[in-house]
Amino acid sequence: MTGRKVIMNFPVTATSHRLADYRARDGYQTLAKVLREMRPEQVTKEVVASGILGHGGAAFPAGRKWGVIKLNDEQPHYLCANADEGEPGTFKDRWILENAPHLLLESMLIAAYALQVRHAFVYIRGEFDLPYRRLAAAVEEAYEAGYFGKPVGQPIGGSDFACDIVIYRGAGSYVCGEASALITSIEGKKGYPRNRPPRLTVRGLYQRPTVINNVETLANVKAIVAQGGEAFRQIGTAKSPGTQLVSISGHVNKPGVYEVEYGYPLAQFIAEDCGGVLGGARLKCIVPGGISTKVLTASEIATVTYDHASLTAAGSGVGSGGMVVIAEGTCMVRLLQILLRFYHHESCGQCTPCREGMGWMHRIIDRIVAGQGHPEDIEQLARISRANDGTTICGMGDAAGYATLGILAKYSDEFDYFIEHKRSKFGGRLEVAAQEAAHA
Ligand SMILES: Cc1cc2nc3c(=O)[nH]c(=O)nc-3n(C[C@H](O)[C@H](O)[C@H](O)COP(=O)(O)O)c2cc1C
Ligand code: SF4
Predict the structure, then answer these.
(1) Is any ligand 2 atom within 6 A of the Cβ of residue 400?
(2) Rounded distance, CA 58 to CA 120, Å?
(3) Residue 72's pLDDT is what?
(4) In contact, 294 and 246? CB cutoff 8 Å
C-alpha cells in the first residue's frame, strides 16, 4: 500500500468514467456546495491553505498562482488544463483522463468559479486517443446535464455563474506542454515558448490573465475544497501536501500508475508495491520524475522518501511523476543517446544554445556509439550542457543539460570504456533481456 488516496479512491470498472457512476460517487456535489455557499476568494483561500504544489514538473504552489488573478478587473480570465503529458516516461494524467474525466471537469468548474473564468480549455496531446474520446464524451455529458452553460452568463447550479469548455488537441510537440507554448498553440500560432515576464497570470491566452495547471493539480481541487485546505494538508508531508500519481515503467515487474502519498519510502515502493526489478536483476538507477530529472543510483535512493524535499536533497526531483526503473546491465551511453535524440528532435529552434547544442550533443553521442568517440567528447558534452543553463527561453534547454550532466557524472566509466573499446561495456544488450530469454 502506498498511503492514502485522493484520486484513485474508487474501483475502475467498464463504466466508472461515466457521469452516472461519477454522480453515484457524490460527483458534482462539491461544485453545488461551492456555488451555494462559497465566494470565489474563499475557494482560492482553501487551495492556498492546502499547500498543494503543481504536478506538472515545476512544483509551483497552485494557490500562489491563483492568488495573482485579480477578480472584478473586468477582463476575461482563462483557465487551461495542461494535458499535453509529453515528458517521456510520464503517463499519469492519462489515467485521470481515461478513468476520472468528470473529476477533472468538476474540479475545473470549481477553479473557474474561483478565478472568475468563463472559458476554460483542456490542451490535450495529439497522440492521446482513448483519453481524448473519454474526455470529449464526458464534456458532452456535462453539457447535457447543465454543468457547463453555453451562453456566457447562463445560470449554472442555480447561481449566476456559467462556464464553457473547449478541448484543444495538440499536434504532438513536446514543447507545446510548456505553458506559454501551449497558449501560443491554442491561439493558432506555432507553439513557441514565450519570454517572461510578463507572467501568464498577468498576460496569457489572448493577452489576458490565464491560469495553467497540470491535469493532476486541477483534479485535486475537488478534494481540497470538499474537505478543506487544512485537512488536505494533513495528507503527505509538511512541505509536500497530498499525493502524487506516479507512472512507473522500464525494468520493473509491475509497471503502471500508482497513487503515492508523499513521504512514502521510495525503495519500498519499487521493491514491494511495484514488484521489484524485472527478471530479478539488481537495480542500477532510476529516473525519478521524467527524463528531465537527474538519475539516482540504487544506493542514492536507499533512504529517500517520495517527496520534493527528500528527492531534491538526493540531487533530483519529483518532476512530472514519471519514474523509469533501470536494471544493472543497462548501457548508460545508449540511454543518453536516446535522450539526446529526443531533445534534438523536440527543440523548437528559437534559442541558439538549445537549437545548436542539442544537435551538437546528438552528433557527439552518435559518434561515440558508432565507435568513433574521442576522450575529450565527455568534457565537450558537459560543456555544451552547462552552456544551456539559464540561457534559453523555456526550461527544455536546462532540462536536457541537467539530465546529461547527471548521467555523465555518475557513469563516466561507461563513457570511458565505450570510447576506448569502441563498444559498450554491456555488449549493447541488457542483461535483463538476456535473462528473460533464458527463462522463456
Ligand atoms: C519543455 C516543457 C514541457 C512541459 N510539458 C508539460 C506537460 O506535458 N504537462 C504539464 O502539466 N506541464 C508541462 N510543463 C510545465 C508547464 O510549463 C507548467 O509549469 C505546468 O503546466 C504548470 O502546471 P502546474 O503548476 O499545475 O504544475 C512543461 C515544461 C517544459 C519546459
Ligand atoms: S529552450 Fe529549446 S525548446 Fe525552449 S524555447 Fe529555446 S529552443 Fe525552444
Answers:
(1) no
(2) 22
(3) 85
(4) no
* Strand ranges inside 163-242, DSSP E: 164-169, 210-214
Let me know: does 278 contact 251? Beta carbons within 8 Å.
yes
* Mean pLDDT of the region 139-147: 95
Q: Whose CA is nearest to atom 4 of ligand 2?
A: 394
Residues β-bridged to residue 264: 306
Question: Domains of the chain (ranges plus CATH)?
Answer: 19-233 (3.40.50.11540), 243-327 (3.10.20.600), 332-431 (1.20.1440.230)
Could you identify the residue written with the cell 452553460? 149
Ligand 1 site residues (CB inside 6 A) read 54-58, 60, 62, 82, 84-87, 174-175, 177-179, 212-214, 217, 394-396
Give residue-wise pLDDT tens across range 6-51. Answer: 999 999 999 999 999 999 999 999 999 998 889 999 999 999 999 9
Helix axes 352-369, 377-388, angle to 10 degrees: 160
**Rounded (to 5) percent helix, strand, coil in the chain:** 45, 15, 40
The closest alpha carbon to 218, from 71, 126, 105, belongs to: 105
**Verdict on whether the full-model pTM lies above 0.90:** yes
